[in-house]
Amino acid sequence: MSLDSETFSLLKSSVQRFIQQRLVPLENHVEEHDEVPDDIVNAMKEIGLFGLSIPEEYGGIGLSMAQECEVAYELGQTALAFRSVAGTNIGIGSQGILMDGTPEQKAQYLPKIASGELIISFALTEPDAGSDAASLKTRGVKDGDDYLLSGGKRYITNAPRAGAFTLMARTDGPGAGGISAFIVPANLPGITLGKPDKKMGQRGTKTCDVMLDNVRVPVANIIGGVPGKGFKTAMKVLDRGRLHVSALACGMANRILQETIAYAQQRKQFGQRIGDFQLVQAMLADSQAELFAGWSMVQACAGRYDAKPFGQTDPDVSMRASCTKMFTTEMVGRVADRGVQVHGGAGYINEYKVERFYRDVRLLRLYEGTTQIQQLIIGKNLMRQA
Ligand code: COS
């Protein structure tokens, strides 16, 4: 699946224009009000951002992974809260249905997800199951043609906006093999949402807990119709999500570097621009080189991702997605840190963008698998291959 190169370059230019003309000027507003305005969400729907990764037959744009990464890089040029509005529809919310769903599930849900009419969240994490996702406790008990779901999900991105969840629950014994993935409409009786989480950064993104108390979900809502496959679906979704996050990290690194260069050009000390001092140039150079390395990894890995059959797992690609996620998200942390350093005292003041981007990028090393989980995946694969 991919968009022809001419149409793709038109799409990319219109996304770039939208970001520069509409989103960048609103960054302060989003930071102050902790909310992405409705007219922006609607404009994002019109451009097709919610359906980037969904095939044209379901009303999406049908980008390849490499193309999706290029758009994610562009979305990294502005406050990450904007991307987050469409992020779960593009990635972790929708991809399980696309990869493993039945034809009926795809036909029923994907067009609404692609248009943004339905916001879909990914509900895997629980209070006691984060990195150890296979230990999740939310239970699904069979009752006739339904399952009764009970449990709690934590830090669920877009839950306050969601019309449905791709939700992992235990329908059988312990471990990964006992987990099923369900499509759960958010308006079912027994679902309640916690208070919106107050976070370190990324103001304007919405996360909260989701509680389930005997929520009656038809058997037909198990993704793919077969129980016990949910953990693998979640892992496949995360492989893809990790590449998307990597591209986003590179985009944000570029934005921070540009902010930093602009500051180094206009700030004068000791009678000259600080950017003319070699110690400052060294920091800029390290950031540029690391960004180049990270973006090269994203492109190489996305190319391999596109080369394998869609929805199938290639452990080598999974491992490289983890390498890429680990490197790029750590890299943007270092770029942000140097950005603050070059800004000096101004870098600690909220008025300057680097202060908030520094906080915003901290999340990238945590969600969709911490750096340490990526290390485990890489290490395990290396030992298995040997
Ligand atoms: N694609 C497809 N299948 C995969 C897979 C992948 N990328 N990774 C693992 N699997 C399969 C394994 O092949 C195994 O199947 P079999 O039992 O048939 O052999 C099964 O899933 C269990 O795998 P494994 O034994 O490796 O699972 P572990 O419990 O050891 O944990 C980690 C695996 C740690 C990698 C997983 O729990 C993880 O990614 N944790 C982080 C979760 C995360 O990112 N959370 C963020 C929340 S979403 S924002």
Q: Looking at CATH, which topology of the largest domain would you report? A: Butyryl-CoA Dehydrogenase, subunit A, domain 3
Please state the second-level CATH architecture of the largest domain. Up-down Bundle
Shape designation: globular
Total number of strands: 9
Largest sheet, described in full?
4 strands, antiparallel
Provide a descriptive summary of the structure in words.
- By secondary structure, this protein is α+β, with helices and mostly antiparallel strands.
- It folds into three domains: 5-115, Orthogonal Bundle (Butyryl-Coa Dehydrogenase, subunit A, domain 1); 120-227, Beta Barrel (Butyryl-CoA Dehydrogenase, subunit A, domain 2); 231-385, Butyryl-CoA Dehydrogenase, subunit A, domain 3 (Up-down Bundle), CATH 1.20.140.10.
- It is 51% helix and 14% strand.
- It has twelve helices and nine strands.
- The protein has helices spanning 5-23, 27-33, 38-47, 65-75, 80-90, 95-100, 103-115, 230-266, 278-307, 315-343, 353-360, 371-385, and strands at residues 120-123, 139-143, 146-157, 164-170, 179-185, 191-193, 207-218, 268-269, 272-273.
- The strands form three sheets. The protein has a four-stranded antiparallel beta sheet, with no helix packed on it.
- The mean pLDDT is 97.
- The structure holds coenzyme a persulfide.
